[in-house]
Amino acid sequence: MLFLLPLLVLAVDAQQPLTLNSINTFTTSTSLFDLPASSQLTVSVAIMLPSVVPGSGGGADVFEIQLTDGSGQWSGSAPSGGLLSCPRYLEQGSFQISVSDNANLPAPDIPSSIPNFTLVIAPTSAQLSSLPQTACALLNTSSTVSIAGNDPWLRSSEGWRSQWLVDGLTPSTNYTAYVIQDVFKVSGPIYFATKSASFQCPLVYSLPYCPSIAYAMPLPPPPSRTFGYNATSLPDSITLPLLQYMNNFTTMLTTFACGRDLYSPLQTCADCQTHYRTWLCSVSFPRCSEQAPGNNSTAASSSSLGTAAQVPLSALQPQSSGSPSRSSNFPNATYNYSSLLPCLETCNAVDRACPYFLGIKCPTTKFNAAASYGVGFIDSGDGDEIGNGVTGLAQDRWGNVWCNGN
Ligand SMILES: *[C@@H]1O[C@H](CO)[C@@H](O)[C@H](O)[C@H]1NC(C)=O
Ligand SMILES: *[C@@H]1O[C@H](CO)[C@@H](O)[C@H](O)[C@H]1NC(C)=O
Ligand SMILES: *[C@@H]1O[C@H](CO)[C@@H](O)[C@H](O)[C@H]1NC(C)=O
Ligand SMILES: *[C@@H]1O[C@H](CO)[C@@H](O)[C@H](O)[C@H]1NC(C)=O
Ligand SMILES: *[C@@H]1O[C@H](CO)[C@@H](O)[C@H](O)[C@H]1NC(C)=O
Ligand SMILES: *[C@@H]1O[C@H](CO)[C@@H](O)[C@H](O)[C@H]1NC(C)=O
Ligand SMILES: *[C@@H]1O[C@H](CO)[C@@H](O)[C@H](O)[C@H]1NC(C)=O
Ligand SMILES: *[C@@H]1O[C@H](CO)[C@@H](O)[C@H](O)[C@H]1NC(C)=O
Ligand SMILES: *[C@@H]1O[C@H](CO)[C@@H](O)[C@H](O)[C@H]1NC(C)=O
Description:
This protein is an alpha+beta fold. The chain has helices at about 135-140, 235-255, 270-285, 345-355, and strands spanning about 1-5, 15, 20-25, 30-35, 40-45, 60-65, 70-80, 80-85, 95-100, 115-125, 145-155, 160-165, 175-180, 185-195, 205, 215, 230, 285-290, 315-320, 335-340. Helix 2 runs antiparallel to helix 3 (about 270-285) and helix 3 packs antiparallel against helix 4.
């Protein structure tokens, strides 16, 4: 198998081996690389020169890596390794190649200097928003919570963010938060509400393969002296099947659709993979939630949703203790909880972004979509569905979450 960056015939050069799961940086003169053998290989290329003219590749086992904004990626099966060739224009500057067999989506490097962010949190009743909205006023408030962790986190393709793990919050309380950058720049107010004291599901967060997941799941209490489950403590019985689904999907996608022809003028393989990952994560990780605080209306009122109420009811499904979870790899819960259904739009996004031959089919509202998805919160359901896109969003700025869009 041969991989080609925009096609070029090369004089015989020394072939440079590439090390698996590490970033290899090259400057000039090398243009042929040996790829290691793997059934699941991902090759990422990043250049440090702007404006590259794409070329064209061809042949059954020849793939071209298209560069967008200076980087590009290929994933697929290379059971007996392969050859990566780079065109001459790359030799004018330095470039990086990484070869991995763990099928992660491409990730930008962590920024070398992270601004100093300070998180300020207080119960909404403390009325931070009536103070002058300045860093000096907000930083002078006393905190009732403690910060248990603060790390940079690559939550989505939008880039790196600061993530805080906060301890000492009071149940059933509205909170207001601000983020202050370098002691003068204020972002906020950000509002959120804590769950009630009887809420039992622990937090799961910081999973590199599902980076946008950070919510409560129907699991037993987490290991002692931790604040929840992360990639270290989440059981393999949950993680491994998920990674297998992702790898199998990537193999299927890249073997047939990527690198040879464009299957759509609007969507790329990376879009398809990103939306598939979002969907897979939201259906594989059941989310616990509860009805918005202060609201005792029952589900019976949902038929009037489209007309009367401004505040819709979340797509919650009661699950009783001992019953199996929606996700077959989860243990049966030992307590009652309500499961927040994934937004139907997470499935529709995969359908739109992926090549048709993958056979992705989402349920329609006529055929019972609402049994397994939150329908009508973001887009209108098809036709006469109750929600009619009531919220346009999976959640609002007050911390009410209608469906799991993660
Ligand atoms: C970041 O800002 C906070 C609040 O002003 C300050 O206490 C802290 O020392 C700063 N940290 C760094 C590394 O500058
Ligand atoms: C900071 O807060 C204290 C009370 O908590 C107040 O006495 C003091 O004047 C404040 N300082 C400034 C600069 O606003
Ligand atoms: C929290 O805010 C919501 C509005 O978003 C309000 O309906 C509710 O009563 C508040 N809860 C408390 C405990 O203040
Ligand atoms: C998971 O959490 C534990 C304890 O809080 C911590 O020691 C560990 O480094 C974390 N692992 C990851 C991958 O974040
Ligand atoms: C992934 O593919 C392998 C090999 O084709 C297969 O044995 C396995 O069952 C698949 N896993 C899932 C979760 O579909
Ligand atoms: C909600 O119902 C509970 C009992 O089911 C009751 O104690 C509480 O006062 C009610 N809250 C509101 C805002 O109606
Ligand atoms: C509670 O739900 C009803 C019906 O959905 C809605 O009309 C009302 O505004 C909600 N109240 C709060 C405080 O969210
Ligand atoms: C989970 O619940 C199902 C249905 O109630 C039951 O058949 C199964 O044995 C339970 N599994 C475990 C591990 O308890
Ligand atoms: C769980 O819910 C069932 C009804 O679905 C109820 O009979 C049972 O008492 C609840 N258990 C607890 C611990 O609340």
